[in-house]
Amino acid sequence: MIKKARKQVILHRKENYKMKEGKIWKILILFLLISHCAKAQFNVEEFCKKTFKFSTFYAAASGGTSISDVDVYSVSSGLETFTVQTPFDYNLAFGIRKIARFGYENRAQTFYDGTEDSWSDGANIGKVSGLEFLFEADIKRQEGVEYLDQNHFIRYVGNKYILKGEYLQDGFADIEYFETSQRYRHNIGKISLNVGLAQRMSEPYGYDPLKEWVALNNDIHYTYLAIQEGYNIDVYNSIYTDPNGNVVATSPEVWEEVAVPTMLANYVETKRNELDKKFQQSLVLGLDYYYYKKSFWLHTWANLMPWHYDDGGSFSYHNYNNGEQWYDYSGGLIFGYKYNKHLGVFAEGKYNKYWNREWYDFKCGINYVIF
Prior knowledge:
Elements: H1 2-16, H2 22-37, H3 44-52, E1 56-64, E2 70-74, E3 80-84, E4 89-98, E5 130-142, E6 145-157, E7 161-170, E8 175-188, E9 191-202, H4 209-216, H5 222-228, E10 232-234, E11 239-241, E12 247-249, H6 252-274, E13 278-292, E14 296-308, H7 317-320, E15 328-338, E16 343-354, E17 357-368
Antiparallel strand pairs: 1-4, 2-3, 4-5, 5-6, 6-7, 7-8, 8-9, 9-13, 10-11, 11-12, 13-14, 14-15, 15-16, 16-17
Helix pairs in contact: 1-6
């Protein structure tokens, strides 16, 4: 029963992550054309030759063992044993990138396979000025749950301005948005400061379908929500079925601990997907700093959105923040120091906070070479 309920969750999430990407790709390509045409009269052949020179297209597949099988026991009608099996993990990656590597970045592998994680891609400016881009999609399964991750961006860095368009979908972190920004840039030595406007499209984060349902139904039990959603309960025989007639529980315990949480997760995701994308206009401030020597390097960047336009809509994030402004921010740090030929330390990390979503990565360590 638990295995079947888990399978339903996986199938439901799989259906919801089948995105219609046509509009996003058109917007990004249009952004690329505009940024390029702003510098010179447009010529298709010359544009393609210059744009894709030194870029790399890659497609790769990887996989591995997931978590081990788990035995689950039930004594509701005699001893029964169920084995929850988790299929192997996999990752299918497709992409094209044209991003100059910073001095501290080594090409460790001969080929791109989609598993590379260059955190410096999140910086506002790259190693070189001009046009850089990344388009990558990863179809993956992790611990039995399927995700679609996407990271696409186009960035044009000039002496006095920065233009960027980005689309991010991280299934594991449950975040998805499309963002463009136009910024004025000012350099002070190795520090690059920028200020401008950012526009984002996303689902209305902050909206809580369960909180809304509870408020409308005076805190009654979620079993009533399940009945509204088409579930059927045979109390006398302890048989619980979903809207398709499949048995999802044969005891109140399994119903409460497995079926109801599954129903709630499906309900929340369905209600969220029914809503239109929300447009958010914000003020953005940013900075970048890059210093590199063979024995010491420091690269850091940060962005802050301290003010957001309130359009007064029903699903505006202002409504979920008591009508007040809030801070959205992101940043990253890459540090390395080689004390001598033997000893070296490093620390790397990136952090993002948009609306009520947070996602981050970090790593640090020490190396000692014996010779």
